[in-house]
Structure formats: structure tokens, C-alpha cells
Amino acid sequence: MSSVVDIRVPDIGDFADVPVVEVYVAVGDTVEVDQTLIALESDKATLDVPTSVGGEIVELLLGEGDPASEGTLIARIRADAVAADATVFEPAPPAEAPSPAPEPKETPAPPPAPLPAPAAGNVHASPSIRKFARELGVDLSQVAGSGRKGRITRDDVTGFVKGVMRAPDGQSGVPIGGLALPPWPEVDFEAFGPTDRVPLSRIARISGPALARNAIVIPHVTSFETADTTDLEAFRKTINAENADGPKLTLLAFAVKAVVAALKAHPKFNASLAGEELVLKRYFHIGIAADTPEGLVVPVVRDADQKGVLEIAAEMADLAATARAGRLKPTDMQGGTFTISSLGGIGGTNFCPIINAPEVAILGMTRATIQPVWDGADFKPRLVQPLSLSWDHRVVDGVAAARFLKTVQSVLTDFRRYSL
Fold it and tell me: φ and ψ at 31, to 5 degrees?
């Protein structure tokens, strides 16, 4: 006997009202267990949602652009075998009555009334969208919602910001963090020569407004330092030679441990600013910026203080591969306390990374190079690693930043110091 099963959105972390970006099935389709039904676009990642049962889709309740949260009903499937965690939908039995009730006369439903423009205090938006709007300084009563029943989505907020920034001369720009930005310049690029127009990637569309917010709201300062990693590099090569079949050990894995040592010694860098309070965290979850075809994402190595460099190297490799495949889960990118952005595999001499809010600092690394270093008697060729630390001046100052970098430097120069 077949049953009709409800398929709902599973646990997707702290996210709510995540937009549906792809729908892979239609009513009448036959699906197999674990076949993908829809794709959700969370912050910097796309999440495929599979079905836990196989069978025929008899009802589809989400479409492209619809918001979805944990527990949102996706579809109903007529299935022969029901999974243990599936919800079976069965109509309620008819109430007992001495005689059947007469069938109601069908009347056409009245056309839906037009939705009024949202008024102050009466906007339809989730708590996460309200928080996002507050961070951008956007008055939600001025934003038209495109979701169901006029609900305001993240795209509605970012679209409003872009529209105001493109406002004609004489109109005020969008207020962000108390600043009224001037309108974005309108230029007829084609008037100067041939052009090509390419849509922004999904990651760029999502992360762009957040990066702009972080760069504008946070008073960034960047400090620079170098570390002599000659001995550490020799040790790294020795370990890799001894563990040819194991995970490839990189300098970045050592940098994670060096950062943990610095965070323990300087707790204000392992914190977040929350109003007039500083939240000091006693856990060490290190975000590692990873390059993907769609753009930059930041998966998190959790409890890095409790893991060895080989375990960290293996975990980073798995996260990077998952990121490049576009299959990071929202939980893979949540809870970070500090971020490392490394360009060591590409090059460069130094750079000033943007802080990954709500963190208060970020470490930048470029490629280490052989340089002549004076040892008091002669110049010796040494492998020198450039380091840059962007920090939030509302929380820490230049002296604290210099001390933080000195701790990172000392550990990378002599890794034995990590155990002290």
C-alpha cells in the first residue's frame, strides 16, 4: 500500500528564509531515494536537498525564488516504502454523522487583493533579513517585498541598496553605518569601445554587499611582519617525505596552529563586538579562505587548538575540495573566530585583507621567498614569509596588533614554541 510522504527542508544551521535557486523536479516525476529535489543558496554556498523516499511527486510546494527554512514543506511523494524519518501525510478520517453533508456549491474564488506597500513597523521580513537591513542602514518600510505575501528577501534589500546608489544626481545615497554614500556613477561604457557583459556569480552577488559593509563600517588598520620559516620548511618537507601516503602538510596548517597560539596569548583577537560588549570566545574555530570557480568562500576548521597539523592539513584539503565542488554546507562556514587568507600558492608580496565580520581581525599570507638575512656576521639565504594583519581599531590598537604578529612570527620561526 502506498503512502503520501511529506518531504521537508532538513537542518541547515542558523539560516532562515534561504532562497530556492533551482528546482529539479515537477509534479508527476518519479524520483529515487537521495535524488536532489531543490537547491538552496545560503551564504556563500549552494545546498542540494535530496528526498528520503522514492516515488511519484504528487505535489510541489516550493518554486525558484521562494524562501525556505528548516522544516519548510518541499513536496509530497506517493511512496511504496517510507523512510523512518519521513512524515506520512494522510487525510483525516471523515467525522461520523447520521447522514452525509450536502456538497457545497462551487463558487469562484475572489481575485486576490493587491498587497499594500509595507508600512513602518508592519513589514514582512525574517529576523535575519531585519538584522541584515540594520547592518546596511536600510529602512525596511521603504523596501518592496518580492516574496510570498510581500515578504522581503535578501535580494530585495540588496536591490534597494543598488537602486539608491544608482540614484540620479541630487538624490541622497544609501545610508550605511551612519554614512550617506554618493550615488554610483552612471557611465555609458559602450560609448568608449566594445564591451562584454557577464553576470556576477552567485557567491559574488551574496558576498559583495557584506564585503562593502565590512569595509565601510569597520575601521580597518593593517600591520605587517615577516617570519623566518627556513627551519619550519625543512621540517615540513621531512614530514611529507615520511608520510608519502598521508595528507600533504602545508605551511598553512602550521599557520593555523601559530594563530591559535597568538589568540590564546591575546584573547581580544578571538572576540566579536556586540553593541557595547566584547564577546571573548573560549573556542578556536579558524576560517580558511578558499578559492573556487564561483569566488571566495571561508570554510571553518573547528577546535583547531585540539588538532595536530596533520589532522588540520587533511581537514583543510577536504574542505577546499568540497568548496570547489560548490557543496559546502552552511554549518561548514559558521562559528569562525578568526580567518586566514593565504595567497601563498599564487604569489604577491603583501596585501590588506578585509575583516570577516563579526570577527575583529584577519591574517593575510603571501608566498615565502628566499632573501638575504644578516646574522651578525654575514648575509645568509633564508626563507621569509610575509604576514599582514588587518584589525578592527574599535577593539584593539597598534601595540596589541604588533604583539599578536610577534607571537605568530615566533611560532613560525621555531615551532617548538607552540608547546610552551
Answer: -120, 160
Whether 326 and 385 share a structural domain: yes
- Percentage of the chain lying above the pLDDT 70 cut: 82
Q: How many whole angstroms separate alpha carbon 295 and alpha carbon 40?
A: 17
Catalytic residue among 124, 266, 285, 393: 393
H/E element, 197? none
The reply to whether 105 falls in a domain is no
For 174, the enclosing helix (H) or strand (E) is none
Q: What is the mean pLDDT of the chain?
A: 84
More reliable by pLDDT, 398 or 81: 398
Residue identified by cell 573560549 is: 282
CATH (domain of 324): 3.30.559.10
Task: Give residue 92's pLDDT.
Answer: 44
- Is 393 annotated as catalytic? yes
Nearest to 74 by CA among 18, 130, 112: 18
Antiparallel, parallel or unpaired: β 338-342 and 361-365: parallel
Give the structural domain span for 350: 221-419
Instruction: Give the Cα separation of 140 and 154 in Å (integer).
Output: 11
Cell of 192: 568608449
Please write the tens of the pLDDT for every residue from 200-242: 887 888 788 888 889 988 999 999 999 999 999 999 999 999 9
Q: How many domains is the chain partitioned into structurally?
A: 3
- Please indicate, yes or no, whether the overall pTM of this predicted structure exceeds 0.70: no
41 with 132, same domain? no
Three-class secondary structure of residue 254 per DSSP: helix
> In whole angstroms, how far apart are CA 77 and each of 1, 10, 387?
13, 16, 55
Q: How far is CA 131 from CA 91, 122, 125, 127, 369, in A?
A: 39, 16, 10, 6, 44
Instruction: List the alpha helices (DSSP H) in 148-297.
Output: 154-165, 202-217, 230-242, 251-265
Q: What are phi and psi of 259, to 5 degrees?
A: -65, -40
| DSSP conformation letters of 79-119 | ESS--TTPEEE-PPPPPP-SSPPPPPPP-PPPPPPPPPPPP
Helices (H) then strands (E): counts for the chain: 7, 22
The 10 Å Cβ neighbour count of residue 5 is 24
Q: How far is CA 259 from CA 117, 186, 301, 376, 403, in A?
A: 50, 44, 12, 29, 12
